[in-house]
Amino acid sequence: MTTLFLQSEIKNPYPFYEKMTVENPIYWDETNKIWAVYSYEHCVEVLKNENAHIPQLPFNPNLNHYALEIISNLARLSNGVQHQIAKETANILFSYMKTIGVDSILKELIDNEISQNQINWVDSVCKKLPVLTVLKSFDFDTQDSIFISEKISSFVKIMSPNKTLEETILLNEIAEKIYTITSKHISKLPFYESLLSQISTSQNISLEKTLSICTVNLIGLFIQSYDACRGLLSNALLQIISKETLFKDKNWIQKMIVETLRFDPPIHNTRRIANIDIQLNNITIKKDDSILVVLAGANRDSKKFENAIDFDFERENNSEHLTFGIGGHMCLAKYFSVQLTTNVLYYLLKHFKISILENEIEYEPMINARSPKAIYISLYN
Ligand code: HEM
To answer: What's the CA-to-centroid distance between 6 and ligand 1, angstroms?
Structure first.
């Protein structure tokens, strides 16, 4: 097994991570020319190191103005001062989100898609609910919400380094529409003036540029909520069903979700590139070397988590998992995501008796995320 593999091709990657954490916590993969870091301590060190930069996407001359504006201003993809501005913008936007109950969105999705008491949980709920919740919490109207939530699965490809010409053409089309919808919508929000002045004053940038950074980072919230939240809603449901327990309270569900984030996380790794030579446990990671930070490996490090290979929702430090990252680029939605997943699964377990309709779960062909392709379940009141 190599450091880079598609989750769809590996039945259980965790024994490999556990072995690497003990035997090769900082490993140079000669084939892929990448450092892979597995131990908790060293993953934290890389993520907190300001000279471990987010890798830049290769220049793609076929992307249009809107797509380029998006990839060059997203917090998730930027470094240095630009990152500080983008991150502050994303944080301010996030703080303006209205709290939205998920019950009505979930009920509508289930009612629309259930057939003979069966539903594909991934397609019908996990791929739609997080982004619809974010859209609703910013008061997007139904038509725009439907457009964005339907396009988001194709649009997240904008974050990937390799895009075919066909994908690029589609991305350009969606980028222009999503950018136009979002920019128009922001200017109608009641907090528009104060949002813009908060950012342009603190960062001393023009109002026009501020509006663009706000638009892009609001789009960033749609993008980020799609892949990772989908995986958590799926993986947490699988863990809960596998425990075959009777319905428990919200607190129990939340603990199960936090332990799922450690034990079977939706995001397995993230990447950095050394901006200068970096010393890590007496190893020199040379300037321009690529680094794979194996968050899912750190989560199974027995130096950090006692009996790390056991699913134990009562373990005291489960919430110290690295699934949301740490340091400058840490996820700004960690509490939001746990809350959202708790509310969704609470509603589901409270209203239905659930059983799973397949034995073997297949995973998406992704390197950085472990996300089920489909989960067919039956639901009875
Ligand atoms: C289970 C759900 C989620 C997981 C596991 C997750 C995970 C992560 C991780 C690992 C990072 C850091 C990446 C790195 O350091 O390279 C990150 C960043 C980020 N996340 Fe999340 N995320 C989740 C949900 C969300 C949601 C729902 C939103 C928005 C509503 C969001 C917004 C962001 C943003 C804007 C960043 C970039 C922060 C920055 O670079 O400064 N995430 N997320």
So the answer is: 21
Rounded to whole angstroms, what are the CA distances from 169 to 67, 166, 375? 10, 5, 31
Residues of 175-188 as b/e, b for ≥16 C-beta within 10 angstroms? bebbbebbbebbee
Per-residue pLDDT reduced to its tens digit, 299-331: 999 999 999 999 999 999 999 999 999 999 999
3.40.228.10, 1.10.630.10, 1.10.1660.10, 3.40.50.2300: CATH of 7-380: 1.10.630.10
How do residues 236-248 score in pLDDT, each as one tens digit? 999 999 986 776 7
Question: Where are the chain's structural domains?
Answer: 7-380
* Ranges of H-type helices in 163-291: 165-188, 192-203, 207-242, 250-263
Read off the amino acid at residue 377: I
Pocket of ligand 1 (CB under 6 A): 47, 75-76, 87, 90, 130, 134, 220-221, 224-225, 228-229, 232, 266-267, 270, 323-325, 329, 331-333, 336-337
